Each structure stands twice: as C-alpha cells, then as structure tokens.
C-alpha cells in the first residue's frame, strides 16, 4: 500500500526525484510525474499499463505558466481558459519544444489544464515543472475519485498518494481542441457543453473519435468495470433476470428489487450529483456478489452527455 497523506512537501520530494505521486483533482485522481522528465513520463505509461500512443494531459497552476508550453493560443481558447480555469476543462494547443514528445505521443499539440483543487494548486505552485497526469487507474478501468480507489489499484506501484478527499466533479475534464480557431469537443466531461457554448457560441462535438488522431485515447472499451455492464432504458430491462444483477439508476429505485443491489445516481435528478457519484457507484456495484450490472441512460442535458458517454464506453464489448 502507498502512503496516503496531505503533505505537499512529501509529494514534491518524490516528484523532484522523478518518482510518481497520485494527486487529487476536482475531476478524478491523477497519476502524476514531472512532465519535463522523460523517465518519469515513461514510468507513468508503465505503471498504468497504458499504450504509448495515448498522450497525457499536463497540469499547472497559472495561465502564465501554460504560455511557456504552448506556441499559440487562439482567441476562443483564451476566452475559455479565462472563464473556466481552474476547472474541468482541458485545451489542446500547439506545443512548444519544451514539452517532450513522449508526453504528447509525438503529436504537435499538447493537452493542458489548470485543475481546481486547493491542495493540488498548492503543490503546483511550489514545483518548477508541470505535472503529466492521466487518471490514476489501470488502463481501461474506472477512474478513481478518492484516495482509497487509487490505493486499491495502484497502491503497490507508487510511493505516495496526496489525499484531497473525494473528487467533487467525479468525471474527467472536457477536452476542447481547435480547428481554424473554432472549438471542437473531443471528450465530453465535467464541464457541460452548454457552459462552453455560453462563452464561445456553438461548438462541434467529435467525442467518439477512437480512430481520430486528435484523441487517440478515446478507445471504446474504456472506464469499464470487471463485471459485464448492459446499458438501456429501464422500460426495456428484462422482467426476470437469469443472472444476479446490480443496477445503476438515475433517480429512482426499481420496485421489487432489493435496494442493496441498486445505486441511484441522484435522487433529485441533479446531473452534477449524478456525475459525482458515477464512478464510485460503478466500483461499488463491481464488488457486489453479482454477475452483471444493468445501467440506464440518464437524460441528455448538462453533464448527462458525459455520463452517458462513460456508460456507453463501460458497456462496450471488445
Ligand atoms: O480530468 C482529467 O482530465 C483527468 C485529471 C487527472 O486531470 N485526466 C485524464 O487523463 O482524464 P487521461 O490520460 O485519463 O485522459 C486524457 C485524454 C486521453 O484520451 C488522451 O488521448 C487525450 O486526453 N489527449 C492527451 N493529449 C492529447 C493530445 N495532444 N491530442 C489529443 N488528445 C490528447
Ligand atoms: Mg483515463
């Protein structure tokens, strides 16, 4: 098990030595290393068991620092950065040489974000490099939203987990890139599309681009629990299940089924609460003595788009 603590100086020591530390963010926990140190970046891929063609997001604490790593900042990107950073928004921008090719898997753009978590911002302020950090889960599994989730899966492989409590947003950042200076959403996430559009007008959505070189990591069978997950509208759930089943539901229990085998994302139908609970509940269901999980689609408003996206990826078959 990794040591879990709240000491940013301990985290800093490990990072300066080129070692990895799990970090809290408002979206999900990250597996962080010095983004400017090739060997630290390599160990991120190793520890996560992540293919080298899937690039990493770099995290820092100020717009001024971001400018050191990117060679161009389209007007709409700047508008979004000013509105939503620190926050669950990742921008794809042309990279400067300072960012190693390993971080971007050889692409000429780099994914950057300023996360909104006080403990992490404190750490980022004291280190002279950005942190490359994918979500702190083994490749393909559900992202962690608390320190215990990280410890359960990567605890043997890292020395320290900076414990910042539960991730408030609960779902990864929204990734926005630019073509001819026009914003394109490549990954739906913790910042709702409506909020982005309120600032920069209509945006294009290209979230399912597993074949798109802009988001090579958007592989279909991502975020998957170990138990098979079937996704549908609840009206079409079978009357009688042949297998022991757990349920992930939006705002209402199913009658005639033991509530212990049901998780309700938000009793009030609040999308932010639903996103916050999504991954934690999937994990809870995954360790119940059941054979399969049945989940229902949530309404397609606000963070509902990102929630349904994750559920679809979790449900994807090989
Ligand atoms: O909320 C988040 O974004 C979390 C926290 C830790 O910040 N991080 C996260 O990282 O979700 P990860 O590695 O699990 O997902 C990053 C995604 C991948 O799908 C990757 O393909 C995409 O970002 N990405 C990174 N750099 C890219 C680039 N230069 N061009 C296109 N896509 C990129
Ligand atoms: Mg991930």
UniProtKB/TrEMBL annotation:
Binding-site residues for ATP, renumbered to this chain: 50, 59, 135, 143, 187, 223
GO biological process, one term: regulation of translational fidelity
Catalytic activity of the protein: L-threonine + hydrogencarbonate + ATP = L-threonylcarbamoyladenylate + diphosphate + H2O
Keywords: ATP-binding, Cytoplasm, Nucleotide-binding, Nucleotidyltransferase, Transferase, tRNA processing
UniProt: L-threonine binding residues: 27, 113, 133, 173
Keyword Chaperone among UniProt keywords: no
UniProt cross-references to InterPro entries, sorted A to Z: DHBP_synth_RibB-like_a/b_dom, Sua5-like_dom, Sua5/YwlC_C, Sua5_C, T(6)A37_SUA5, TC-AMP_synthase_SUA5
Alphabetized Gene3D superfamilies for the sequence: DHBP synthase (3.90.870.10), Threonylcarbamoyl-AMP synthase, C-terminal domain (3.40.50.11030)
Family: Belongs to the SUA5 family.
Protein name: Threonylcarbamoyl-AMP synthase
The species this protein was found in: Dyadobacter fanqingshengii
């Amino acid at each position: 098990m990794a040591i879990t603590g709240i000491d940013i100086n301990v985290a800093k020591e490990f990072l300066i030595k080129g070692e990895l530390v799990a970090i809290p963010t408002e979206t999900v926990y990250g597996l962080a290393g010095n983004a400017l140190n090739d060997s630290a970046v390599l160990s991120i891929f190793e520890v996560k068991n992540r293919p080298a063609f899937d690039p990493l997001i770099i995290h820092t604490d100020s717009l001024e620092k971001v400018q050191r790593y990117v060679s161009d900042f389209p007007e709409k990107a700047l508008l979004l950065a000013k509105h939503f950073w620190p926050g669950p928004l990742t921008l794809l921008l042309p990279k400067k040489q300072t960012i190693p090719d390993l971080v971007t898997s050889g692409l000429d753009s780099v994914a950057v974000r300023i996360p909104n978590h006080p403990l992490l911002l404190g750490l980022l302020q004291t280190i002279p490099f950005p942190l490359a950090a994918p979500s702190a889960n083994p490749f393909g599994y559900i992202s962690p939203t608390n320190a215990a989730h990280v410890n359960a899966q990567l605890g043997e492989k890292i020395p320290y987990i900076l414990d910042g409590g539960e991730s408030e947003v609960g779902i990864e950042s929204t990734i926005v890139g630019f073509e001819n200076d026009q914003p394109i959403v490549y990954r739906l996430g913790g910042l709702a599309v409506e909020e982005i559009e309120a600032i920069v007008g209509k945006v294009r959505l290209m979230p399912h681009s597993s074949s798109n070189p802009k988001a090579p990591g958007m592989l279909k069978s991502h975020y998957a629990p170990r138990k098979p997950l079937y996704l549908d509208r609840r009206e079409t759930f079978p009357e009688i299940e042949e297998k022991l089943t757990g349920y992930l539901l939006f705002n209402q229990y199913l009658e005639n089924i033991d509530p212990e085998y049901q998780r309700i994302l938000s009793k009030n139908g609040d999308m932010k609460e639903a996103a916050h609970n999504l991954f934690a509940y999937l994990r809870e269901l995954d360790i119940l003595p059941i054979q399969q999980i049945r989940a229902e689609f949530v309404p397609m408003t606000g963070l509902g788009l990102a929630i349904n996206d994750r559920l679809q990826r979790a449900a994807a078959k090989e």
